[in-house]
Amino acid sequence: MFVRELTAHRASTPAERRLLIALVLTLMALFLLGPGLQAQEVEPEATPERQATDPAQAEPKPPSGSDTSSVIADIVQNKEISAESIRQIYVPDELLRPASSDLHTDVKYMNRRLTRLRAQILGNLPKTRAEEASERVEQQVETRRTKPVDSVYFQQGVMIRIAHKSMFAITTADLDLVAGETLESRAEEAITNLERAIEEAEALRRPGQVLRSLGWAVVITLVYVLWIWILLRLEKVLQRRIMLATAGKLKHSIAGMIAKESDHLVKIIRSAGRAARALGVLLVLVSTYLWLTAVLKRFPYTRPWGEALGGYLLDVAAWIAGGVIDAIPGLFIVAVIYYLTRTLSRMMTASFTAVEEGRLQIPGLDADTAQPTKKLATVALWLLAVVVAYPYLPGSGTDAFKGLSVFVGLVVSLGSSGVVNQAMSGFMLMYSKALRIGDWVHVGDVEGEVLQLGMLSTKVRTREGEEVTVPNAVVISKETVNYTRFSKEGVQVSTVVTIGYDAPWRQVHAMLEQAAAVTPGLRQEPPPFVLQTSLSDWYPEYKLKAVIENPPDRPQVLSALHKNIQDVFNEYGVQIMSPHYINDPPEPFLVPPDRRSPPPAQAESTSERVSKPTSEG
Question: What is the CATH number of domain 421-482?
């Protein structure tokens, strides 16, 4: 209307007309450009003097008669609330209670966590509170009035404010009392995070900030690529040198010769090269982690991610270093226990070895029981050392370590029944002295020389050169024949021959004894002898017994004895034949008196004579 009146006024002179036009243009410019200029005006940083003099930044006075409801309404409407009004806030206990853990929510701005809300206030869940708080912070930052960032305590919590406007409240129900949180620590943390988030938001609005961040990211990436290239070159050089050093060490060692004969030398050298490669891969991964952390920190929005990555790496390193430092006293005690146990074990081993070799006499021990006793004593000593050192091991008191111990014990108890059975059988064999290394034995279907008496099994080498492993429980349960134990006193071998009744028994005895006398490997003292073990319907059974020199040669000696028996019987014209009944002979089948002692039998000194009983009275 004012403009219309000015334009409707008729100027009488040219000067008045020029003045009128200038006035109209000025008013139009102010009307069109005024709001834009006002919006672009930057609020200067508030100083203590300005806060005291500027009415816009001054602390608003508490309204008279304000109560909790009106204050909360003003907070929702994002109005400036005085500190005194905030201090008067009180929420009934039934309207302020902790929410379940799955409803806990973080208040975030610029991708940065400001604080964590755990309470439900006036029916508002933590998620709703967090969303409203983030929205209020964003709206306040948009006004560019971001100072001061302070806190005001009330009866049940603390209010976090920006430029005297309430953003969000942290109540006592939001605290994690188990972690030792307090309102003061939570308020300080929230103010620090909020100030950093505001700084990042303001930095993001500055011209050229994104370009500078991109430039730094490119420079960091170029350095990272150059470092990775250097690492890969160093990895190849290190891998080649480690493989050459390993090959040189194995070339002149016994282990290297054994590995070469078993075609494992190349595998060992390649394994050393793989260790160098694994080290290179680890360095590449760590470098990539650091590169990603540095790049994320260059951009305001992703800076919290970079700080989280860097903080995690530092936390892990600090945790490892702290764990190592805390574990040093316990590890020292474990090392002392280990060296003491090893020293005692070596002393025990030397003592038992001396007993086994006959250089030391200990009551109750001999050469046969020294070895199993040494094993039992060594195992018992190390088990005692483990029990004593267990409390000093790092992490022994944690639930994970206890759970692992229980699991291992359960597995051992369930799977060791067979092992314990074999071990107990082995100790029974050793302490009963039923077998010794070098004995020639027959166990079940296995016959051969004992090579090893172990806790779980016994190794036997057969005549064919085969090594047979017999479980100790089988050795205990089967009949075991030891041909070596009484070889000095004499171990007998025997063979059975059946000859018809028409052959004089004295002659058969003499021929069998003569065949045994010319057989190598049979002793002549005590002399071989013959027993008639049965008188069957068609033939008697003759069993020749003799003492063998070397029990392991029993098959060869018996083969030679059988050859000599055939030769002697052929020499004296006696058939080795067992007749069977078909029909009655025309005359009785008897040996006449003049043929009862044919050669090589002697009439008066037969090998066996039946003495007639003398009658008395």
Answer: 2.30.30.60
For the four alpha carbons of 76, 81, 83 and 84, in that order, the dihedral sign comes to: negative
List, in order, residues 6 or more apart from 253 with CB less than 8 Å away: none
Query: Across the 617 residues of the chain, what is the mean pLDDT of every consecutive 10-residue run?
Result: 39 48 44 36 37 38 48 56 81 84 89 89 88 89 87 90 89 89 92 88 77 86 90 84 77 62 66 81 87 84 78 76 81 91 91 82 74 83 90 78 77 68 72 76 83 79 84 79 76 88 88 91 89 88 90 87 90 79 61 69 48 37
Q: Domain limits of the chain?
A: 2-35, 66-205, 209-301, 302-412, 421-482, 491-579
CB 472 within 8 A of CB 484: no
List the one residue out of 307, 80, 290 whose CA is nearest residue 196: 307
The backbone torsions φ and ψ at residue 309, rounded to the nearest 5 degrees and listed phi first, read -65, -45
Residue 486, both tokens = 């009484």
Answer yes or no: are the C-beta atoms of 568 and 514 closer than 8 Å: yes
Are residues 533 and 519 in contact, defined by beta-carbon separation less than 8 angstroms? no
Beta-bridged to residue 108, according to DSSP, are 113
Do the beta carbons of residue 141 and residue 198 sit within 8 Å? yes
H helix and E strand count, the chain: 17, 15
Strand (E) or helix (H) holding 246: helix 209-251
Q: Which amino acid, 145?
A: R
| Helix H or strand E segment including 23 | helix 14-40
Which residue reads 């891969």 in tokens? 281
Pairing of the two strands 119-121 and 112-117: unpaired
Please name the amino acid found at residue 133.
A
* 3-state secondary structure at position 113: strand
Farthest CA pair distance, the chain:
199
Class of residue 149 by CB neighbours under 10 A (exposed 0-12, middle 13-18, buried 19+): middle
Residues with Cβ < 8 Å from 98, sequence gap 6 or more? 118, 119, 120, 173
What is 491-579's CATH topology? Alpha-Beta Plaits (3.30.70)
What secondary structure letter does DSSP report for 172? G
Q: Write the CA distances from 414 to 198, 199, 410, 472, 473, integer angstroms.
A: 62, 63, 6, 20, 19
Q: What is the pTM of this model?
A: 0.43
The count of other CB atoms within 10 Å of the CB of residue 496 is 11
